[in-house]
């Protein structure tokens, strides 16, 4: 839990990969390793950015078209990733400051990621951000919670979050669509893996181009909503 802060003024759900940090090094290495283990090496030079965002279970099924091979590949991926590849990951410049500013300003902060929750918790802790977030939500080991919409739904329900004063922040269409499925808007960040075109097509509420601009943009959105909500008496 974060330290002493003003009364909560709203809630922010932040995606991890492509929003808080760039995991490409470790993800790509583990993905290649997994495919090699099931006899379908990824061709050199072929792009891999598309795998960051969607659930890995889906990506392996798309490529292998075989449930058994996809399950085996996912297990190989997790083994390789857990062995150290998860730390081949870099925090985007300015994100630590943006998260700190939001927490100090009284926002409740949660991570909502499609990454396996155990991996996500280790990465958030590695970057020293764990005290700023109330909790990390991610996919489950058994696959029951896998889609971004499911992760967001679990967070909203468990934490009793008011959707009226909650915003999602992410870099892919999966973040926008998952938020919409739960009655939330999503601010799209353009420094990740989706880009402005993908986020605009998915109908993100607005785009953010720099981490330094994120706290102000979130304040603007949430404060506008608070201004029109009925006051408690």
Structural summary, described in words:
Helix content is 44%, strand content 16%. It has 233 residues and is of the alpha/beta class. It has 2 domains: 10-22 and 90-228, HAD superfamily/HAD-like (Rossmann fold), CATH 3.40.50; 24-87, DNA polymerase, domain 1. Strands 5-4-1-6-7-8 form a 6-stranded parallel β-sheet, sandwiched between helices. A two-stranded antiparallel ribbon has the order 2-3. Helix 1 packs across helix 3 (67-82). The longest helix has 16 residues, at 67-82. It is elongated, with a radius of gyration of 18 Å.
**Count of all domains:** 2
> How many DSSP helices?
9
Q: Identify the CATH homologous superfamily of the largest domain.
A: HAD superfamily/HAD-like
> Helices and strands, in N-to-C order?
EEHHHEHEHEHEHEHEH
Poorly predicted spans? 1-7
Determine and state the CATH class of the largest domain. Answer: Alpha Beta
Q: Report mean pLDDT, rounded to a whole number.
A: 93
Structural class: alpha/beta
Fraction of residues in H or I helices: 40-55%
How are the elements arranged and paired?
Blueprint: E1 10-14, E2 21-22, H1 24-37, H2 56-64, H3 67-82, E3 90-91, H4 95-104, E4 107-116, H5 117-126, E5 135-139, H6 148-159, E6 166-170, H7 173-181, E7 185-189, H8 195-201, E8 206-208, H9 214-228
Parallel strand pairs: 1-4, 1-6, 4-5, 6-7, 7-8
Antiparallel strand pairs: 2-3
